[in-house]
Amino acid sequence: MARLPAVLSKPPVVLRRTTAVDVDEMLLVIEESVEHLRPWMAWAAEDPTAESVRAHIARCDDDWDRGVDFAYAITVDSRIVGRCGTRFLAGTRGVEMGYWLHPDAVGRGIATAATEAMLVAVFALPDVDWVEIVHDTANPRSGAIPRRLGFREVARVSPPQEPITPGEDGVDVRWRLTRTDFLASGLG
Length: 188
Known about the structure:
By secondary structure, the chain is an alpha+beta fold. Helix content is about 35%, strand content about 30%. It contains five helices and eight strands; from the N terminus they run E-E-H-H-E-E-E-H-E-H-E-E-H. The protein has an eight-stranded mixed beta sheet with strand order 1-2-3-4-5-6-8-7, with helices on both faces. Helix 1 crosses helix 2. The mean pLDDT is about 95.
């Protein structure tokens, strides 16, 4: 079973596995971000509560322990500024990555650094051949990250993989980075 480290780093960003201790800080970050995230994230349709954040972290812990999904807090100067994760796609040698940031952290290269740190860790595993990032066509900011890191657009798919949110147009853009391209890129 594949395992990723509990802490990853690409200065000034540190990714770390969240625990129950993070509930209050994560709740605050989500509360401050929810209006910014609602157009793009189906889970942001509901206002967060301490109970919903606690339950989410518990599900993430279970997924982590089963080796299927690895969620990280994105931190800068030890403060949580967002969340990112990677999940292994069953029956493939592929991984899907995702990310979101507090609005004050957007446009500072933080999501790109977090994604690069995850790429280094994922491609250190021998059984991963490719990584995908998926976003809606109406969210070009999210697409700038895979483009910046050398991913190639491989498909536009409708209907999307998740429910359509208020800001989306319902067409998913799929980006892929292969192990070969990653190694040639000089990342990490």
